[in-house]
């Protein structure tokens, strides 16, 4: 088993990591770290568990460590707040740890892969460049990022269309869940009987990450996809599940049947390799007139499938549809875990030698 | 005082009519009619009052009448369900009553005005054509409609831009309130912790009504505006207040300051005539990054102003913004009342002679 | 496998039955019946699936049957609305079917067991009396009921205290979930930003069912428990999970530690027999100051455990606490299934002979 | 006009003060103070306005002052958090200001009146004792408190019964609104689809404040009422309006008609003196089976009336009923303002001399 350390273990996404890893076939949580006054407490005391369901037994007694290397593990999963992530994650990578992070700090760095395994696994080749650079600095670890919780839905919904028909423009309007803001996050007086038409930096993240995710890899660099992305983001009174209303313009003509086919037949490396967290159907197309809905569809594919519905011709662009995905599973912890599963399958995550190599760094 | 009869008086919009007319300077409710088993009961018994605030005293004792002429009033306000509206309203018009209706049945008829007083008051000239036609049939009443609750927000938000810069395309994604579906309306299990990406016929209504509202009037006919409208509609967990996320393409270049100016200086006939329900500012522009919000802004201008915010350049069309309006006030009962106030100011609503004229119809 | 027929299969509780039976070790759904215009349609078309998660594959193609015998099954589970339940269920029992029902119609009948397997399994002896009566009428089937969704929580929370200390009075104030009203159920305009201090007949049901459940069985009759029950019921804006705030007066003095012990050590026949749906801990005691909470704790024990918290001395009665249980699992479908599992373990549910016996009834 | 200074002016209750005083006949806000980094900013910039409706024009430009004397005003209204209230309010009283406070710090002090003007106005006589004590200390100002937001509902609902029939025990279970926790207050992830069975110190406050409020005044001291109070408190997903489910035991027998009469005829000094904020009916009795409801009834009497409903005999105590009141109006800002109006009517608030007296303190 690969030993995993969780950075930001007491937060909302940190808790999802622990929940999803509770019975994982390849990963076991061996260390929890948090940046606050909870250090050295047993995790069960340091963490106010906010997820439905029971506290994960296997980590109750783990002592909370500070967020700095060394950490008793082979790989680090991070959900640190962006304020501290860049510095802390950088230090872990420099100390030789693979860092699989949900934080936004490194996503747009030229030699850092921003990856959805079904969409752009070839970007992982950036790891080699990254290691060359950091190895010189004494490290040899690396950083792999997954996208923003809405960008992952946008890129997954678009990828099958982009491959087959070419997407030239996308206009997406999101209705995002409360858990996306963490805990305590959105005050209830703002959420109840209300919609907030603003999420800090979210529109920008969707616009730029989508282009990197759908971009091509060549000569050691990612070339952003040549499409225009317009995002308007809203916080709605939903616990989990981000919904997006889309209009897209395509390069090539398509019929409704061809769109459906592009989505329903879409498979990627995770499905081929049968990775443990890979959903059988990355995209589920719903034909009912009123689906997908967050409460009913967010758990499709154990929270790893994107549900698409209401596909119809559009009067301004070419097509319209809505898409939904679980923002803390496919949009955060599950995304990072799937990245790690792919790295493991590709031999980019190793166990025994690293434990030894890392020893001197502890000195 | 003009005596008003309310058709559909026990429904959600019917109750808003009564609430808004409770202390109106020109209109007094003299008759309430409903299509159900509540006939002949006192209104206070027939109606389960669903609005915050007290039951309107002045109508407690009115007996509920059937929805057919004659009715003890000078003008009829209607919020009948579309299934019965066309037939019933048609009979009232034929019997000589001005019918000011919130129902959708007649909105797209060629000689029926679909009017927002600040936007296209000149369309009221259609009344003359209509009366010519129906007078021959023995009547002489007429029908005036107000738009769908979302279309009124779309058309009001666009009107100042359309006049000054020409709107060629609009992409609007709505997040609509529960009260828009009436009572009992949306089941709570569908509303709680959820978004429903579907409202029956709503997208079509917004797309076609917006063009008629922004259209020109010439030679006895309305020429629909030549703009493309794309609407995607969602029901969110909000009691009152429809929010729309907009992208627009303009014919002429504009700056952010010019857009703001177009909205904030926008005034119409209701403001000029100082009609009782006219808001001082038909459009309120909010500069905070997170406004407008339904709970905080729906009551702007006593529910008659549209609030606009988050104005910014768009990456696919030209501009983006969000707009909000109160769906049962500006979007329904208040819209009809403002139409009636304008008709009264224009001398198209008369009191004493009609009472006499109508007498024979009662026989 | 015992073949199960579901009466009221398209409703909220009917859907829970199907979901919970999807992978049951002893029961398989062989027939679905509904009282509406859905007859003869495949279930997947007749039913608008309202539960999170996927449609149960195994019943997709079953044709919906009318709610009358004969039905292709060995036992009938019912969640019919009370208006029709008495008549329909009576006819199934008369035709020789064991009827395990969640409906309220027969609950207070003298020879019908009202049972929570952990609390009063001995009441099942009433079945023999019942069969004697109905066998004379040609039948030989029987009816077993489970309690109202709140009464089950009240009786389960009280049972350990009643056994050990004697409960003389209980004052319970409930905050009940929306799903308890079925679908469409509570209108969203009543649920959002609101509490409704009324649920039809609920207070009466809790008051009388609790006494029967905690009552003793002797000489072929249930003697209601001699305690006073006061219930006030409220509908709150929660999807699933009924919460109750309790004060109790006890016959014998108890300490907080003794109360805790009574609850945490409480076990019943289902735990002894290791019935498939039996939770390991029928009562879970939470020590955090702010638990149990519906969203976090309703799924304890797969929705079959009652969570108790905030135990403290009371200033008017003796003790106060709050309790929570899942209203459509432990409070409805799960309750009926656990009853059936106990009946099966006790040899009161048989398979093969009945299939033959029933044949003539079809003629 | 009496000039009012608001302590804690940027908080939720502070904003209510400003909203309610916006057009008050006797009070005008002349100073706003806040304990944070907002000092010296114009109020419009320091305060993120969270109430529906427009920002109060009259205070936009006021500079935010520190929370310490002197302050440019004749009386101080306070809604400071309890952590700082005792110290700050004490210093204002010592400096000669009447302090009308919604904070809990001084409520249970022996010589500080805890007052609901309709219930126990005679307790204001404590002011004289207080001034004797503090005058010696150089001051001469005084402190008057209003109750906790739930205690005010409990005491108002009980007062008419206590006067006429004697209340010996009350068991109240509250379902309290989110605004009671201030802003940001309750995280939305705790509020949505949930109930929290805990509000810090709330049960204790209700239990002890109710006894002081219903207590008698004699010989310069308040004698707590001899009744037992049991409170269980819950936070529910409602913006405004605290609901309580009550059972009461009475000393003297009463009929339902007598209870109704006690409530509907209940009047106090504020009604006699026609104070500006006094509701015509302090208690409104609703006879519908499903009222009062927070969303529909919280604004009764402009938020100053308590609504009572569901009155019925109880099976454990004598009677049960539910009551509702607006927690930030009658339960906070409105309570303090009504106290101030009574003090003004009684000549305990004076304007001109104090302005002079205080001048030297400014040096």
Describe the structure in your own words.
Four copies of one chain form a homotetramer. In chain A, strands 3-2-1-4-5-6 form a six-stranded parallel sheet, sandwiched between helices. A six-stranded mixed sheet of chain A has the order 10-7-11-14-13-12. Helix content of chain A is 31%, strand content 21%. The model of chain A is unreliable at 352-363 (pLDDT under 50). In chain A, helix 1 crosses helix 11 (329-345) and helix 5 packs parallel to helix 7. Chain A is globular, with a radius of gyration of 20 Å. Chain A is α/β, with parallel strands linked by helices and 363 residues long. Chains in contact: A-B, A-C, A-D, B-C, B-D, C-D.
Structural descriptors:
363 residues, alpha/beta, 6-stranded mixed β-sheet, homotetramer
**Helix run count of chain A:** 12
Strand order of the largest sheet of chain A: 3-2-1-4-5-6
Q: What string, H for helix and E for strand, traces the elements of chain A in order? A: EHEHEEHEHEHEHHEEEEHHEHEEHH
Counting helices, strands and paired strands, the structural category of chain A is alpha/beta
* Mean pLDDT over the full residue set of chain A: 94
Report on the biggest sheet of chain A. Answer: 6 strands, parallel
Distance between the termini of chain A: 26 Å
Radius of gyration of chain A: 20 Å
**Total number of beta strands of chain A:** 14
Based on CA inertia axes, which overall geometry of chain A fits? globular
Which consecutive residue ranges of chain A, at least 5 long each, have pLDDT under 50?
A: 352-363
Q: What is the beta-strand fraction of chain A? A: 15-25%
In terms of quaternary structure, the protein is homotetramer
């Amino acid at each position: 088993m690969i030993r995993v350390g969780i950075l930001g273990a007491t937060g909302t996404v940190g808790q999802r990591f622990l929940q999803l890893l509770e019975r994982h076939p390849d990963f076991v949580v061996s260390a929890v770290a948090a940046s606050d006054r909870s250090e050295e407490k047993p995790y069960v005391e340091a963490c106010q568990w906010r997820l439905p369901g029971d506290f994960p037994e296997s980590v109750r007694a783990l002592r909370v460590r500070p967020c700095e290397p060394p950490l008793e593990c082979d790989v680090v999963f991070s959900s640190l707040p962006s304020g501290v992530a860049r510095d802390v994650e950088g230090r872990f990578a420099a100390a030789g740890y693979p860092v699989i992070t949900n934080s936004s700090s490194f996503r747009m760095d030229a030699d850092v892969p921003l990856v959805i395994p079904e969409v752009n696994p070839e970007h992982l080749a950036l790891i080699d460049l990254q290691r060359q650079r950091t190895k010189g600095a004494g490290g040899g670890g690396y950083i792999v990022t997954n996208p923003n919780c809405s960008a992952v839905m946008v890129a997954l919904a678009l990828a099958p269309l982009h491959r087959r028909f070419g997407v030239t423009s996308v206009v997406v309007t999101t209705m995002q869940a409360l858990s996306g803001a963490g805990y305590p996050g959105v005050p209830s007086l703002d959420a109840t009987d209300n919609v907030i038409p603003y999420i800090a930096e979210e529109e920008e993240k969707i616009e730029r990450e989508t282009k990197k995710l759908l971009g091509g890899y060549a000569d050691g660099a990612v070339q952003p996809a040549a499409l225009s992305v317009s995002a308007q983001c809203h916080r709605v009174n939903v616990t989990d599940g981000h919904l997006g209303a889309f209009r897209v313009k395509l390069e090539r003509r398509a019929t409704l049947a061809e769109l459906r086919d592009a989505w329903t037949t879409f498979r990627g490396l995770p499905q081929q390799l049968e990775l443990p967290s890979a959903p059988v159907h990355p995209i589920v197309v719903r034909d009912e007139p009123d689906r997908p809905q967050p409460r009913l569809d967010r758990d499709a594919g154990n929270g790893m499938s994107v549900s698409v519905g209401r596909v119809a011709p559009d009067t301004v662009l070419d097509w319209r549809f809505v898409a939904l995905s679980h923002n803390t599973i496919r949009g955060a912890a599950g995304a990072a875990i799937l990245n790690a599963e792919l790295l493991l399958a590709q031999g980019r995550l190793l166990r025994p030698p690293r434990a030894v190599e890392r020893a001197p760094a502890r000195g």
